[in-house]
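**Polypeptide and fold**
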Amino acid sequence: MSMLIQRYPEFLQKGAEFADIQQALEPERLALWQARDGLCDQLNVDTATWGLKSWEEALGIPVEVSKDTAFRRSRVKSKLRGAGVTTVAMIQSVAESFSNGDVEVTEQPERYRVAIKFVGTIGIPPNMEDLTASLREIMPAHLGWDYIIIYNTWDAVKTHTWAELKTHTWREIKEGDLNT
């Protein structure tokens, strides 16, 4: 028996025709609830899929449906986080949304700059071009910034033999996790 028919008075529930009608309506009711839930998912950036286009258009971000969903979500989140007065915390939040790792931001007021250090990743984080574009939008025009990127040091590499390392490119050695 469908869930909907249980809400009607008992004398209606016993009618075969009424039960057949309700049984026929049940799949449509379920489809409507699923559609409602799918629509609600689009109202949250973390669960949006086809609704990302609306988020991007509303925020003035170029719509690039060929890019993966996680990348598009990070751009939307960055734009949302970048609203208001620019603070160190805002810059850190925006940078972390692109780098997929922890970021330290240090003010250098005497130089009119901030240093953005990627402490949660080794090597150049992905989406640097989009991070730079986002920073250009939120940073005051008189402030500049420097990226500080962490690479593997000789101390991290010296635990491996040359035979182990010769299978890697120099970039993989500098930026990769050699312990896996």
User: Anything to note?
Assistant: The mean pLDDT is 84. The two ends are 55 Å apart (CA to CA).
